[in-house]
Fold each of these.
Amino acid sequence: MKKLKYILLLAVLFVLGACQRSQEERNGILKVYNWADYIDEDVLAEFPEWYKEQTGEDIEVIYQVFDINEVMLTKIERGHEDFDVVCPSEYIIERMMRKDMLLPINRDFGNTPDYIPNLAPYIQDELNKMSQGDKKVTDYAVAYMWGTAGTLYNTELVTEEEALECANMWDPKFANKLLMKDSYRDCYGLAIIYANRERLEKGEVTVEQLMNDNSHEAIATAEEYLKALKPNIAGWEADFGKEMMTKGKAWMNFTWSGDAVWAIEEAAEVGVELDYVVPLEGSNVWFDGWVIPKYARNVKAASYFINYMCRPDIALRNMDAIGYVSAVATPEILEEKIDTTLENYSDLSYFFGPEADSVQVDPVQYPDKKVIERCAVIRDFTNKEDLQKVLEMWSRVKGDNLNAGIVLLIFAVFGGLFVWLVISKVKKYQRKIRRKYRRRRR
Ligand code: SPD
């Protein structure tokens, strides 16, 4: 008996030792899960050196990318993958908060400055509207990039007036010339806004109410309008929109402002002029932010990484590399972004503060206050069944699901083949038996 106890104790000590060793090894690793093409590679590569300077500790970054919020969420929610820091959009941050899937950011940075207060109060306020009870979003999420959803268009083939009215996306003259972002919430919002444009104009309903309405009636309306749009759709793109627009294969692309900035620059290099506008009827203003999922195993390094991303010089390098706009709103960023060759002046006081009420800054990157006023933030659909109905509708619209007719056809073809095979086998067997009898009679 004593011997058994001794063996058990040794086994427990061995397991504990192994766990400690593996946690120690894990402390030297930071697993980051971010959108594709969403960071300056040098900024990422320099993080270990900065981390070592700040903490004296070594860190190795394991970096993975995704293209769709829901893909990322499934890996964490169902797969319990141990990413330390991930970058969902606002409505997914809201869902992760609601489902208690996040850990608070540890802002105990020792002698390292806390750069998180560099974020625009406008964005902090918008994020905090999604707080759950006494849990403030900004304790769990740090905004990274933000922008609008709108129409990127080829100025030779589409006029600004046409691009400005989302009604034109449904015009048959754009058959097979429209690319749509493969993002169900953006497309849902667009369809529902367009369907209710008259009520919107009369002030009977707001963009925010429409985009976040997942009643059965709203889902049916969105389905009807998205299906009606299909003859015009050349593709649902996650990242190939920029290329198709640059090559002139598509004329309009309902996309995110940062992708538009990138495409406009690329296209200009080959002599194609693209521009981007936010529909007059309204659209969404979105925010992606860093969060630490509850299965994370290196909260310290994750928090330092998030802090590093809020350094103004790092924010600028990321912006320059990817075309998107950082949530950091310090004077040096504004100074860097002012371009006196631009004709238009924008009111960016909502983002940079009162002195920025008339500044020459790229309006695709930083939307004017008036544009922001016709946009709203996407909120999470909280009811699981209703969310499922929206996703099923999205699948039907995109044609991801096989429809009943095709399933029946497949069954009919394989069923027919099977019956034919059985009949020919039976006939072959009958012939064999008959031959056998004939031989015996002889
Ligand atoms: N290639 C990176 C794209 C990331 C953009 N996120 C936008 C989310 C809008 N809901």
Amino acid sequence: MGSVRIENVTKKFGEMTALDNISLDIREGEFFALLGPSGCGKTTTMRCIAGFESPTSGSIYIGDREMKGIPANRRNCGMVFQSYALFPHMNVFDNVAYSLNIKQLNTKKWLAKLPIYARLLSKRLGRTPKDIKDRVIEMLRYVELEQYADRLTSELSGGQQQRVALARALLMEPAVLLMDEPLSNLDQKLRHSMRNTIRSIQQDLGITTIFVTHDQEEAMSMADRIAVMDHGNVVQVGTPTELYSHPATPFIADFVGTSNILQAIVDGKENGLTVVKGDGFVLRSSNGTDKDEVDVIIRPEHVKVADANQTVNEDDTNVIQGIVIMATYLGSIVRYDVQVGSYQLIVDTTYSAGTGIFEEGKKVKLTVEHERVLLI
Ligand code: ATP
């Protein structure tokens, strides 16, 4: 029921193409992130799924059902937005209970006090007021806000308000939960704890969830799979590990994690390894390529730093000469900026009290294993 299929969807606003023939297959029960920079089409994709926008061409399926012509309120999607969209004059309980009204009754009568409308609802839904109350309280318990049921939402913190919005969306028992930048109004610490809350509720309920973010760390830490979007296109879909270790383009390598991206020409093969040359370096890679010119991707944590005088077996690993420009102590790691030719490479090493920190201006040897040199 909860799978979502997007087939060749294009969305134009006048001359502007916001989505350019995108296709996605989101599995039932999956936590799926749409990741990309501002303006790449994430929100437009969500709005098309929810039914707030109609695709210019292409189809969207929720479960086996094509959504063309089906209005937003009949798509069985729960929504959580960046702005919590709560009623400030209503308490937490009523804010959550309000979603029942929208879905089941399609009337605003629920805005009044619960006891009166619980009776009305119970008649129309065949549920007792107690059933309805129990369901709302159950949802509040899920988001750990049971004790706040009587509080006005205007008296809650941002994180608590976002949890009310989540409880409200979940109460509808939607087939799909759509979350558009739900954490971006929260401070860093709260974002971390809300990530865990959302992820564990999602896993508990097994609800298909599509989550929009421009924050790669958020997508990587929460999602089963991620679609990276750029300029209205889906550029790669994969698990966080797949995207990190095999980015399809330099854009993804740069967007998903930190990368060093170097331009190089291919200079033949040596013992089954591809040799590439660029400004200030020669590298051998276990990646094959059929191109003459490549982008070389090296992750900062895959580089080791040694004193320039240290002996390294150059048959086993790549060695590059460099000069330390800056060393930043970040607690458990030291981040170096190292000049190599015209490039400044970022290198993250585990801090060791024995080795200390290489000072600015120090000549160093950088080593990178052959399989850590990606060629795109
Ligand atoms: P952000 O992270 O900034 O929210 P986004 O990836 O969600 O960005 P969208 O909001 O989907 O991007 O917008 C995609 C493109 O479509 C943008 O260039 C935007 O200006 C344009 N766009 C979106 N909605 C409309 C609209 N109603 N009318 C005209 N252009 C629009």
